[in-house]
Amino acid sequence: MNYFSLNNKNEISSFKNAVIKGLAPDKGLYFPKQIRRLSKTFFKHIEQYSNETIAFEALQQFIVPEIPENTLKQIIKETLSFDFPIIELNDQISTLELFHGPTMAFKDVGARFMARCLGYFNQDNTNEVTVLVATSGDTGGAVANGFLGVKGVNVIILYPSGKVSAIQEKQLTTLGQNITALEVDGVFDDCQDMVKRAFLDDELTRNMQLTSANSINIARWLPQLLYFMFAYKTLKSKYQDIVFSVPSGNFGNICAGIMAQQLGLPIKHFIAANNANNVVSEYLKTQEYQPKASVQTLSNAMDVGNPSNFIRIQEMYHHDFKTLQNNLSAYSFSDAATKTAMNTIYNKYNYIADPHGAIGYLAAQCYIKEHPNVHCVFLETAHPSKFLDVVEPTLGKKLQIPNQIKTVIDKPKVSIKISSYEDLKHFLIQFR
Ligand SMILES: *Cc1c(COP(=O)(O)O)cnc(C)c1O
Questions:
Q1: Deepest of 44, 87, 361, 370, by most Cβ within 10 A of its Cβ?
Q2: Which of 16, 44, 107, 170 is catalytic?
Q3: Catalytic site residue 107?
Q4: Cα 343 from Cα 143, distance rounded (Å)
Q5: Nearest CA residue ID for atom 1, ligand 1
Q6: Is 420 part of a structural domain of the chain?
């Protein structure tokens, strides 16, 4: 399968090149040249297939033969080695728990898949790749864990000192091997600016292969479409019209859901659930797309002022505003509403939601009010214990800490402090 740059249809790339480079030379996001719908019978019988079979059927067209069939099957098997349970709260609303992976964030699937693809392309170890990633919390842990021990790949994670939760910090600073954590004296935007500057620095990129591991990379983005297929498989016999409410920041996850729909998955509608960072919900109201500086909220993984994947959604809906509006709704909620929702979900359903999932629930409620006959699935994108400092005081309750998290808490943190781009560059030069 070839990919083209969303800035220029004539800028073509192989899968391998797109995974290694991340972005096209013209800075456009890569997008598949064709999308082949899966057969109606496949979806009709989907409950008879294992998750691994579904994944192979859905993903092979994007990846084989650059990665051979059997290797892709093995990568899928290793990536999906945990559950994706649906919890029905009532007959209008369910939650899809995406936090059963090693770092308890939905980003585990994309990070593990991408790491294995890069590992395959680098198996002879001739061209080392350096993955450079800025994190506001969850990405760092998932990427560190997913890439741990992958040959020929060095991973450098920049995180803002004192601005990620204690657990998140441990998840990205305790692994060692090919993972290095750089603790930046600054905020998330400073980390991101340094990473962007490194990608544009000829002195660095002439001599080393730098790539990013956020959802602009197709190998991290595409496998997320599987969540929607797995949920459909579970709910299909019970409910006719299934709608997904997706807590969204960079819009990678929801955009993958729309890709599943393009492959033929019968999804009725999508809802983008946003915090105060509401560029997309404003756009749907006014038809004016106005990126803004991000504002800090309780659901910090969604504090994004200019969602990079929105352009991929536009592409799939042919840049047609009416089509977009017919398929996608967006709602935005304050921190106060988020806390109230966490309490409602707990009191009404005895279910503990994290702040991101709680926004998914709120958006689902808004949509159901207008469309009472649908079944709405909101995605739980992280385990609540990753946001202890918000969840415990809001619910007035101590949480049980899962094993995945207990095991990192006591490990010693190892990080390198940096405070400027020059520090970063100095550090990177040793990998050339
Ligand atoms: C990354 C993240 C999101 C946002 O996902 P996007 O694909 O960037 O829209 C939502 N919730 C949590 C917990 C996350 O880590």
A1: 361
A2: 107
A3: yes
A4: 31
A5: 301
A6: no
Does 126 have pLDDT greater than 80? no
For Cα atoms 272, 275, 281, give the angle at the middle one, nearest 5 degrees: 45
Q: In total, how many domains does the chain have?
A: 1
* Cα 312 to ligand 1 centroid, rounded to whole Å: 16
CATH number of the domain that 329 lies in?
3.40.50.1100
Does the reported pTM lie above 0.85? Answer: yes
Paired tokens of 181 = 């954590």
Alpha carbon 151 to its chain centroid, in Å, reads 23
Instruction: Quote the domain boundaries for residue 340.
Output: 83-104+221-401
CA distances from 134 to 141, 290, 428 (A): 11, 24, 14
> Rounded to the nearest 5°, which phi and psi values hold at 230?
-65, -40
List residues near ligand 1 (CB under 6 A): 105, 107, 138, 215, 247-253, 301-302, 356, 381-382
pLDDT of residue 241: 97
Q: List pLDDT tens digits, range 165-196.
A: 888 899 999 999 999 999 999 988 789 889 98
Task: Please determine, for residue 293, whether its predicted confidence score (pLDDT) is greater than 90.
Answer: no
Any domain includes 293: yes
